[in-house]
Design brief:
Quinone Oxidoreductase, Chain A, domain 1; binds zinc ion; alpha/beta; 2 domains; 18 strands
């Protein structure tokens, strides 16, 4: 099969053996695979390489041999026995499998996945529009949960890439008012058109104190901006697997008053099922830009440069 293979810091298109089906796993024909910023962190070595050669990609829409359409996300498996799994915190499992990181992912014509980690997809969504829901959507949704968003809250989204542009629709369905701070005029325009109450650039401060904020950029400075926009008791959830650095900040001014900073780690299967059900109910449809598998490097470059609105999706 054809696949994009990451080796020695380079992603190249090659012919590789098609994976063999094994017990407990299901072989999927890949219909579409979303590109995530995490793929870029893996490519750049900001997440340590775990394998010599790797097929990235963890927002996979695939078809089973029986013709059933399913989704696969970042969490590709857990041990089910560690203290975190036993507490229902499988997102923190001590021995997790991550699709497209410690096992091969969906930048390929076929992918082998654990059969208990595939999700049925809403019939309303075609493969292209379902793919970005599978990490950008699910983990964005988890970020809202981690931030403790309640109906009617004032919520800040800092950064407006593929995850935030899905989160805003979820927030509006909960009657929240949404304040978006992001670089790039086209991202601001998109946020406005999707229903943000206020839109500003990176250096602008929202005109009201926020109940919750979610940061999407891999930048510690953005976390501090979000923190400085919160009311007492407010929460910042960081939706980023990697931050460039974490700046020093003034505890008395920014964190005191029971403000909280929380990271968002991975996802659970419950997050996935709850989010996909909600997405179908509110008719959530991401903006997508399509790249053929041969152009996987261009798709990653588009994410790096923040040059497209919405999500990038690779099609074999
Ligand atoms: Zn991801
Ligand atoms: Zn576990």
């Amino acid at each position: 099969m054809k696949a994009a293979v990451l080796q020695s810091g380079r992603l190249t298109i090659r012919d590789v053996p098609r994976p063999e089906s094994t017990p407990g796993h299901v072989l999927l024909k890949v219909l579409a695979c979303g590109v995530c910023r995490t793929d870029l962190h893996i490519l750049d070595g900001e997440l340590p390489a775990l394998r010599d050669a790797l097929i990235p990609g963890h927002q996979v829409v695939g078809e089973t041999a029986g013709g059933k359409r399913v989704g696969v996300s970042w969490l590709g498996g857990v041990d089910g026995t560690c203290p975190y799994c036993l507490r229902g915190l499988e997102n923190l499992c001590d021995h997790p499998t991550f699709t497209g990181y410690n096992v091969d992912g969906g930048y390929a014509e076929y992918v082998l996945v654990r059969e208990d980690f595939v999700f049925p997809l809403p019939a309303e969504l075609d493969a292209l529009h379902a793919a970005p829901l599978l990490c950008a959507g699910i983990i964005g949704f988890r970020s809202l949960r981690v931030a403790g968003v309640e109906p009617g809250d004032r919520v800040g989204l800092f950064g407006f890439g593929s995850s935030a542009h899905l989160a805003i629709s979820v927030l509006l369905s909960w009657n929240c008012t949404v304040y978006v701070s992001t670089r790039g005029a086209s991202h601001r325009k998109l946020a406005q058109s999707l229903g943000a109450t206020w839109v500003g650039s990176e250096d602008d401060k929202p005109p009201v104190e926020l109940d919750r904020a979610i940061t999407f950029a891999p930048s510690g400075d953005v976390v501090i901006s979000a923190l400085s926009s919160l009311r007492k008791g407010g929460v910042v959830a960081i939706n980023a697997i990697h931050l460039d650095r974490f700046p020093q900040f003034d505890y008395d001014k920014l964190l005191w008053g029971e403000r909280q900073i929380r990271s968002v780690a991975n996802m659970t299967r419950t997050d996935a099922r709850d989010f996909l059900e909600l997405a179908a109910r509110i008719d959530l449809k991401p903006r997508v830009t399509v790249f053929p598998l041969d152009q996987a490097n261009d798709a990653l470059m588009a994410i790096r440069k923040d040059s497209i609105d919405g999500a990038a999706v690779i099609v074999p």
